[in-house]
Specification:
Double-stranded beta-helix; alpha+beta; six-stranded antiparallel sheet; 6 helices; globular
Length: about 270
């Protein structure tokens, strides 16, 4: 194996965090800002790139280009490496940024590559390459919910992906298709075909409340689907917020249960 072999344990249900156990000299990489806690002999180092062999051998210019691609996906310019510099096992924990689940993925059992939504990556064993996957079809790019760009995780080690709500895992047989809301796609293996299908009927498209397009996933391969995309959660929170505070809801004095909360916030 090219990746470090790490052990882990998940805690919690709806607000999960993952505890990674590192042997001496083992390293885990993570998104900037995802750290929850760590033992005393863990060394933290900010790097440009993902710490994989590919990013290290690409030189400074390659690291800059790689970091630029990460900015396109909405991630931080830098990543953080956590290395056990002690002589005993040490632990470091990472938390999800919003309510949902953390999905451990053993890339060695998933054909060495997983394609996921652009903000799904949380952490991984050192050696896992975190890159950019460009969608080649115009329809997927414009209407696929994730645009032209998604993340790709490559290697033979463990990676951790987070998503909102409850996670549904589905294995698609060759030729079998699944239609889902474009924002509910979390990840898929490399052989799954991803395309966009218009919602049938003008009335359904305009007034059905489900958007104009579905994501159509065709096997063979494995897909992960989330029940609560962060964009959907954020839109509901915005709609419920009082208009006087920048939301889309009622202003003070218009009645409703929102005024009850205003009493406590003042």
């Amino acid at each position: 194996m090219n990746n470090h072999e790490i052990d882990y344990k998940l805690y919690g249900d709806d607000m999960q965090f993952v505890e990674v156990e590192l042997d001496p000299s083992e390293t885990v990489i993570a998104e900037a800002g995802s750290l929850m806690m760590m033992d005393d002999h863990i060394k933290m180092e900010t790097i440009m790139g993902d710490g994989s062999d590919n990013s290290q051998s690409s030189g400074f210019l390659g690291k800059v280009l790689g970091a630029g691609k990460r900015i396109i996906t909405g991630e931080s310019l830098f990543m953080t490496m956590f290395t056990n510099e002690g002589i005993h096992k040490q632990r470091v924990s990472f938390a999800s940024p919003y309510p949902g689940k953390i999905i451990p993925m053993d890339l060695s059992q998933l054909q060495g590559k997983v394609i996921c939504q652009k903000d799904a990556f949380l952490a991984a064993a050192k050696g896992v390459s975190v890159g950019v996957e460009f969608q080649r079809k115009l329809g997927v790019g414009f209407f696929g919910g994730e645009g032209f760009i998604m993340q790709k995780l490559e290697g033979d080690g463990l990676a951790f992906v987070h998503a909102g709500g409850t996670i549904y895992e589905r294995v698609l047989q060759p030729g079998e298709s699944l239609r889902i809301d474009t924002g509910c796609l979390v990840a898929m293996t490399r052989d799954v075909q991803y395309d966009i299908q218009a919602v049938g009927g003008i009335k359904t498209a305009l007034f059905g409340g489900e958007g104009l397009f579905f994501a159509r996933l065709t096997g063979p391969g494995k897909v992960w689907v989330q029940s609560l995309p962060f964009s959907r959660l954020a839109s509901r929170v915005f709609a419920a917020a009082p208009a006087s505070k920048g939301g889309g809801g009622k202003s003070k004095g218009e009645g409703g249960i929102g005024n009850v909360f205003d009493l406590f916030s003042n």
